[in-house]
Amino acid sequence: MTDTRPTRWTRHDLDRLAGEPATTAPVIDPATTPRVLPEHDIWDLWPVQREDGTTATVREGELWMTLSAPAVGHPEHRHDIARLHLLARAGDRWTDLGHAFPDGASPGSREWSGSALLRPDGTVSVFYTATGERGEARPTFHQRVVEARPELITDGGATRLARDVEHRVVLRSDGRSYLPADEIDGGPGRIRAFRDPAWFRDPADGVAYLLVAASVPWGDRFMGAVALARETAGGWSLLPPLLVADGVNHEIERPHVVVHRARYHLFFCTSRQSFHPPGAPTGLYGFVAPSLTGPYEPLNGSGLVVRNPPSRPDQAYAWWVLGDLSVVSFVNYLLPDGSDPRQLPAAEARAAFGGTVAPVLDLTLDHATAHAVPRGVSDLAPTPAE
What we know:
3% of the residues lie in helices and 46% in strands.
């Protein structure tokens, strides 16, 4: 694979934004989204996948991972105590399989998002973000990519991961192409990034890659980017970014690639609070290219694939597109007035927070266009957003 210049996501692209029903998710009815874990918030879901991209199955159903934290206090504080959690899905039923790792296993003070791969030998490569430092008195924001490779145990009780395994740092920002993500103080939306590793094997060359949400310099600030790393005999080697948000967004999250009809579709999510100047919605954004390294063009002209409805601008987040083009996310804040949930009192924010799995959407891709509809609804007649 040859290195190429990154695709630049620009204000010109965002000027093409259109509030069409095909890119607007329907309003979520909280009565139809019961909490998967009654005592815990969950967010940022991803499947444990095989190398061919299909979801691994165990006796309880499909094997999934998510972030979790006790459902107490202000929901924004969940990021300071986040843990990786195992779930199984059989249809609409979810089974709790407990924390992925024992207490204190991570080199960080908490575990942030990543991806997971079931290997042919029965082990699971869990790539995740170790944030902070183990045992620190208060949370800091040093981020690096870690791999743990426990055995998947399916006999003698509930499915689980073996406990006694090494957690190795396999990738860090280099401080040159990608800014270091090592702030002492900060919070979501206010820190640099080197997180959310997504494993991908390119069918064109058979080589494995990691996509990582990163930050690159832009004047006296930083902007979001999608970093790429290639697996080599000696580990993971950083490459130039696939995409940079050229002065329009400072926090791209959860980048991943889906190959559909021999075209590479790069997806990520971002929030309305991360755009500068403001104006673009929280949503799933996507780009399409003839190869992994591009050149990419924005889907639907602007990159927007799914947005929250204007009446509920923060209702869902952390969209993830599977190989069958279904789209999962979590219920975020069901606030009608567009206020910033991060600034709300704890009790008010807690009352508005979902902390559970959102309704699944189905995505249709056709060259450089995309639209999503609720599961079970014909893609010829999208459900009205309002």
